[in-house]
Write a structure and sequence with these properties.
Elements: H1 38-54, E1 59-63, H2 69-75, E2 80-85, H3 88-97, E3 103-107, E4 119-122, H4 132-142, E5 145-151, H5 153-156, H6 175-182, E6 188-196, H7 198-208, H8 211-218, H9 221-228, E7 237-241, E8 252-258
Parallel strand pairs: 1-2, 1-4, 2-3, 4-5
Antiparallel strand pairs: 5-8, 6-7, 6-8
Helix pairs in contact: 1-2
């Protein structure tokens, strides 16, 4: 379901609204409206939807908002949302595509964001940051509540590797390393894990039973995944509290942080 980095530039968003420039998939951020990318998009969207339910009525800053779909998701229930991203193409796309009275997009570096708000959302980006500690300290000053996510190195990278082959990632974390990164900057650190659910859990069980060998030997790998991947929904992922799961097996970690 995951594309290799060299192939990502071949994919461009489909069926964009009139006047909205489509974005190309580069591996730096995930995008909706790219069927081959749907697994990763829905994996991220599941977290945004979970946070949206937790931040109802709050003033929220979505840092490194990328294409803007996450900010728009948060704006369905938040009082106000500002999406911040430094990339000019992503900023222009988000500004034109997602319009709501309580939603604003700003172009800027996340390291320079300091406007007070009720909650900061910073998903799947801390692994891109050169000085994550300094940024976390800044986030703690700007808002009493923050949601920060990152992929689990143990389930993303090859066994024993320091990180995956994603060229945009400077460092990837285990649960213990992630908690150690957060603890100096926040009075409360609570971790959640993202796991496969529903049909993705069934697919996971099938893989452990030899599904990979079966579809390859029968010669229908591409037809199957051409249908399966676009059908994945956000509900095919579930967030579980650290007290009710093995975080070492999580796909991603979501830290809920209180200053």
């Amino acid at each position: 379901m995951a594309s290799t980095i060299p192939c990502l530039v071949a994919y461009v968003q489909e069926n964009q609204p009139e006047g909205v420039p489509p974005l190309s998939l580069t591996g730096e951020r995930t995008l909706p409206d790219v069927p081959e990318e749907n697994y990763w998009y829905r994996r991220h969207l599941a977290v945004y939807e979970w946070i949206a339910a937790e931040t109802r009525g709050l003033r929220v800053a979505d840092l490194a908002c990328g294409e803007g779909y996450g900010s728009a998701t948060l704006a369905r229930s938040a009082a106000e949302v500002v999406g911040v991203d430094a990339n000019p193409e992503a900023f222009e796309h988000a500004r034109l595509r997602y319009e709501a009275p309580n939603l604003l997009f700003e172009r800027g570096l996340v390291e320079q964001y300091s406007q007070p708000c009720d909650a900061i959302v910073f998903l799947q980006t801390i692994e891109h940051i050169h000085d994550p500690g300094a940024l976390l300290a800044q986030i703690a000053k700007a808002a009493p509540l923050a949601y920060v996510s990152t992929p689990n190195r143990l389930t993303l990278a090859p066994e024993g590797a320091e990180k995956s082959e994603n060229p945009w990632h400077l460092r990837e974390y285990t649960a213990a390393e992630y908690r150690e990164l957060m603890t100096p900057h926040f009075s409360e650190v609570r971790l959640f894990g993202v796991f496969h659910a529903r049909k993705l859990r069934v697919h996971e069980i099938a893989l452990s039973a030899g599904w990979d060998r079966a579809h390859k030997s029968l010669g229908f790998t591409k037809p199957f995944y051409d249908r399966f991947t676009p059908a994945i929904a956000a509900s095919d992922f579930a967030l579980r509290d650290e007290t009710d799961c093995d975080l070492d097996k999580a796909l991603d970690f979501v830290a809920v942080l209180r200053a």
